[in-house]
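Figure 6 in text form: structure in, sequence out.
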């Protein structure tokens, strides 16, 4: 098998590709704009970004990290809220165009795998990964394997109901966990305390670092909701470690300490069971492409 693999982060208007060597280090990067809104435009963007990054080299496989539900066999996207990929033979079309094995993967699963192999979850067997960005995504590594469920719909933790008849969610339901624990929720909590919505998630985190009380309280609230939801997941999965990534996780202990406290208060039997540590992710923004490339190599072998 050749030394290199490619991981691709597929977004709505941009595709970012990274070439990885066999130890999982990124050695080249490229970007391409995609003609958004059409399947053929997305495929052309992916082919262009991969072509740039692999130039002159043999590659073993290409892994795609995509925000959406992905078929458990890694061949296609089943559902995506923002990308025109659902139901299309994506792996087949890219294999025909690029001449390499292709793996399509959910972005949270890909990031979870990167954290499990080389990041904050290294050495664990049962790991729960939570990505707190605009919404809340989750990736499960169970018995050292990414768990996708029977079809590929597993890990949609952001839409667990945590409040009956709670805040409306774009998914059509109410009271979903990501309405309370996400970057969107952080801004909502801050605005509810009289903050300016223009400050945005990263601005709130910076202000909280400097001790601004509204920002600290908003992060503590989101952290408590994170802990409350995690308590339910712990009841089902009994993970060894919980790794929290995504933009909101940059708040560090201002988010995680309230999460640990609430989790301990909410878990059934917390007095008699050791609780899993909640730790920040360590692979940063590249986790998705790194994990997708690693998984694609395994898939191709
Ligand atoms: Zn929802």
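Output sequence:
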């Amino acid at each position: 098998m050749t030394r290199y693999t490619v991981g691709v982060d597929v977004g709505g208007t941009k595709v970012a590709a990274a070439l990885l060597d066999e130890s999982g280090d990124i050695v080249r990067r490229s970007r391409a704009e995609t003609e958004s809104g059409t399947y053929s435009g997305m495929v052309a963007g992916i082919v262009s970004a991969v072509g740039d990054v692999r130039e002159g080299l043999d590659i073993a496989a290409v892994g795609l990290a995509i925000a959406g539900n992905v078929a458990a066999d890694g061949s296609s996207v089943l559902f995506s809220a923002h990308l025109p990929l659902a139901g299309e033979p994506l792996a087949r079309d890219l294999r025909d165009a690029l001449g390499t094995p292709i793996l399509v993967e959910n972005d949270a699963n890909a990031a979870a795998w990167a954290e499990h192999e080389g990041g904050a979850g290294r050495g664990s067997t049962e790991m729960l990964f939570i990505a707190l960005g605009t919404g809340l995504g989750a990736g499960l590594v169970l018995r050292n394997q990414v768990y996708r469920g029977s079809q590929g719909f597993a890990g949609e933790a952001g839409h667990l109901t945590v409040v009956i008849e709670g805040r409306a969610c774009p998914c059509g339901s109410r009271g979903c966990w990501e309405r309370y624990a996400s970057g969107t929720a952080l801004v909502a909590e801050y605005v509810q305390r009289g903050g300016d919505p223009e400050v945005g998630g990263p601005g709130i985190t910076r202000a909280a670092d400097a001790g601004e009380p509204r920002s600290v309280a908003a992060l503590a609230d989101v952290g408590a909701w994170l802990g409350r939801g995690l308590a339910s997941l712990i009841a089902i999965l009994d993970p060894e470690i919980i790794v929290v990534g995504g933009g909101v996780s940059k708040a560090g202990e201002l988010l995680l300490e309230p999460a640990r406290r609430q989790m301990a208060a909410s878990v059934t039997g917390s007095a008699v069971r050791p609780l899993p540590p909640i730790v920040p992710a360590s692979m940063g923004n590249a986790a998705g492409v790194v994990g997708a490339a690693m998984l694609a190599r395994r898939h191709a072998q």
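Caption detail: The chain has a mean pLDDT of 94.
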